[in-house]
């Protein structure tokens, strides 16, 4: 089981629970505010009720521990929300790739090892200053994200052709993969403009 489906399932569960909670609470507060009938156990029963009475708001004010606990709890909630938000944008890297050995069994190839070989092959190409590779997808159907930093004289079309034919082709063949889809991003090395006389 990969991380991405689990993250999707957790997201859906958390969003569904939060949505139901907000819908139920908001609907009950709205019903009480409009003067509709609400259950007897509901703390707000009419449009003149307030969420917190003055006594409830000032009950813990004199205690020295109250505000530090409130601020710490809110800080933890903010950190959890930020962690969850960052997790939405982070793509999970593939830890391993299954390689068909041809005898009905499968070998496991470490994802970081395949990334390192792809980076070395891509960097060895003419005109490539640096390459960064990340494996995503499933163990049986990996995908690659490649970022190439090109020298000023390099032709992007030639770099892509060499990447597809050499680095990705070698990886496909050595791992016994039928396909290895890739998303490539190209950038040029920053350099000063040359003066022409």
Describe what this molecule looks like in 3D.
- The chain is an alpha+beta fold.
- The chain has three domains: 1-51, no CATH class; 60-92; 96-188, Alpha-Beta Plaits (2-Layer Sandwich), CATH 3.30.70.1350.
- Helices cover 47% and strands 18% of the residues.
- It contains five helices and five strands.
- The protein has helices spanning 3-33, 54-58, 66-89, 111-123, 156-175; strands at residues 96-100, 106-110, 128-137, 142-150, 182-188.
- The strands form two sheets. A three-stranded mixed sheet has the order 3-4-5.
- The chain is elongated.
- The mean pLDDT is 82.
List its traits.
elongated; Alpha-Beta Plaits; 5 helices; two-stranded antiparallel ribbon; alpha+beta; three-stranded mixed beta sheet
Instruction: Output the number of helix runs.
Output: 5
- Oligomer state of the chains in this structure: single chain
The main β sheet shows up as: 3 strands, mixed
How many discrete domains? 3
| CATH architecture level-2 label of the largest domain | 2-Layer Sandwich
CATH superfamily of the largest domain: Cation efflux protein, cytoplasmic domain
Global geometry: elongated
**What is the ordering of alpha helices and beta strands?**
HHHEEHEEHE
Q: Give the strand tally.
A: 5
